[in-house]
Amino acid sequence: MMAASAETELTPFERLGGHATLRAITDRFYDLMEQDPAYAALRAMHAADLAPMRASLPSFLAGWCGGPRDWWQDNPAKCMVSLHSPFAIDRDTAGQWAEAMRRAIADVAPADVDVAQAMGDVLERMALGMARR
Ligand code: HEM
């Protein structure tokens, strides 16, 4: 009988450290967006109050990486990519999103560096995939 190792049975959500890590990454991400002029164009696309995003993004990320799917329960029939179609996302602003997210992940420094690296890579591909120009 094949015995799967404990590591292969864990989801990326668990390997990252669950909701606490995703909340910390999200808060750092929006702090950077609010404070670093390098992300001014990205910041300007968002509503004045980022509090709803600080609640929504960790909930999305949790389900996205194999944890509880609350975001999908709260947003039935919503697709994250098509939800972005009203925004004029170009390669510059998509790149700002991806860079701020990479920095936020690096600053929070999840213990599992492989999953942390993969998270940054895949989110960067998703963000650049949303760019239309
Ligand atoms: C992997 C990439 C991305 C993820 C996972 C993501 C995630 C999210 C989430 C969870 C929301 C809130 C939707 C809701 O729950 O109702 C949202 C909204 C939004 N996103 Fe993204 N996003 C990504 C990329 C981008 C990019 C590249 C841009 C712009 C360059 C962007 C700009 C926005 C804006 C402007 C909103 C509306 C927020 C507001 O009204 O304040 N997103 N995104």
Automatic annotation (TrEMBL):
Taxonomic superkingdom: Bacteria
Regions annotated as coiled coil: none
A Pfam family per the record: Bac_globin
Family that this chain belongs to: Belongs to the truncated hemoglobin family. Group II subfamily.
Keywords: Heme, Iron, Metal-binding, Transport
CDD domains: TrHb2_PhHbO-like_O
Organism: Novosphingobium pokkalii
Keyword NADP: no
The UniProt record lists the keyword Metal-binding: yes
This protein's name: Group II truncated hemoglobin
High-level lineage: Bacteria, Pseudomonadati, Pseudomonadota, Alphaproteobacteria, Sphingomonadales
